[in-house]
Amino acid sequence: MMLQLPTKVQNQIADGVEFWGYKENDKLIGVMGIQFKGDVTLIRHAYVRTSERSKGIGGLLLNHLTAIATTPILIGTWADAKWAISFYLKNGFRLLDRKEINILLPRYWTIPVRQVETSVVLASSNWESIG
């Protein structure tokens, strides 16, 4: 059986996002994307099935992707996604200040202005702030 990916996912792949998954018993439990974007690496689209959260799957995926990154890592997420922010903070990332976020989001992501206003960026420990 051939899996037909949604158009949005196809567009992300065409833009260079590589998706990695975690499976148990032939069931996809978690997925996380990585995008090599010049002088940075972006972690994109991190999801773990609700019933499987808090079992270390997100951490396994994140550790794998950070191991293959060759440049500093940036992660963009919604400011209201407190659970996601907490997860990344626990995994060694730091929350950047608003001034830097406002520069980085339009530089590395293609998102509407409103989304810039409601998003945050976290960075790996080897990120050197630009401001």
Q: Can you walk me through this structure?
A:
- The protein is α+β, with helices and mostly antiparallel strands.
- The protein has one domain: Gcn5-related N-acetyltransferase (GNAT) (Aminopeptidase), CATH 3.40.630.30.
- Helices cover 34% and strands 31% of the residues.
- The chain has a six-stranded mixed β-sheet with strand order 1-2-3-4-6-5, with helices on both faces.
- Strand 3, helix 2 and strand 4 (73-78) form a beta-alpha-beta unit.
- The mean pLDDT is 91.
Describe this structure in a few short sentences.
The protein is of the alpha+beta class. The protein contains 5 helices and 6 strands, in the order αβββαβαβααβ.
Strand percentage: 25-35%
Q: So, the CATH homologous superfamily?
A: Gcn5-related N-acetyltransferase (GNAT)
Shape, principal axes of CA atoms: globular
Poorly predicted tracts of residues = none
Which architecture does the CATH hierarchy give at level 2?
3-Layer(aba) Sandwich
Q: Span from first to last CA?
A: 50 Å
Strand arrangement within the widest β-sheet reads 1-2-3-4-6-5
Order of helices and strands: HEEEHEHEHHE
Total number of helices: 5
What's the total number of strands? 6
Given helix and strand content, the structural type is alpha+beta
Which CATH class is shown?
Answer: Alpha Beta
Mean pLDDT: 91
Helical content, roughly? Answer: 25-40%
Rg from alpha-carbon coordinates? 15 Å
For the biggest sheet, the summary is: 6 strands, mixed
In the CATH scheme, what's the topology name?
Aminopeptidase
Instruction: Give the total of domains.
Output: 1
